[in-house]
Design goal:
Number of helices: 1
Number of strands: 0
Structural class: mainly alpha
Shape: rod-shaped
Oligomer: single chain
Length: 45
């Protein structure tokens, strides 16, 4: 019984960490896209 709880807690911790890493990569990808997105040329150029 305790082993099952321990395994479930470990898996839950793993998935929580995995979700946090995925969220971090999503944020970084949005920031990178915003920085590198080609902007239209301004009229004075």
């Amino acid at each position: 019984m305790l082993l099952g709880i321990d395994v479930a807690t470990t898996l839950s911790s793993f998935w929580a960490g995995f979700a946090a890493v995925c969220a971090g990569f999503l944020v970084c990808s949005v920031v990178f896209a915003a920085i590198t997105w080609p902007h239209p040329a301004s009229p004075e150029e």
